[in-house]
Amino acid sequence: MDAPVKLMPQRTPFRILVSAVLSTRTQDPVTAAAAARLFQVAPDPRALARLSAARIQKLIFPVGFYRTKAKLLPLLSRMLTERWHGEVPRSLAELLELPGVGRKVASIVLSQGFGLPAIAVDTHVQRLSNRLDLVRTFRPVDTERRLMEILPRRAWKDWNRLLVALGQTICRPRQPLCASCPLARLCPRRGVSGSR
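The chain above was modelled as a monomer; its predicted structure follows.
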């Protein structure tokens, strides 16, 4: 499940980046536990770059695609260390150069790590933005572009967090709890069937 990353108290851009990579196709509690284990052993890019893929696999299991992520994380960390002196870059273009980082992860880092305006489109944002009839899109990149056109810039960085919270608890993929939804009066319920 794609979701925003719930992290440990030290929300550094590096920890947000690594946690966001781990979170892809993984539920929040699993991501949080795996990230905590990993950061105990490798709290910064230099330490993570020194770990073997086998060691990382053991630390992050059972996150989704843990074998692939275990190979990508040391490469990502080495790139951070060599190219950006251990710092996480602050631009979308540079973040997208990192192994394992796509638009969603880059946008999470920009918005949560640096407080910059960016819209992270995951499955919840995709579903709810369409269900609310704000967009009529199928691809996350199209959803992101359309939302950037219609939402005020100041709302971009919070959009993912708000919609994920709503999507996980009330506006679920199947059998949404429309009667409990704070947006029920405004929502056209586009594509909704079987709501309660």
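The first helix runs from residue 13 to 23.
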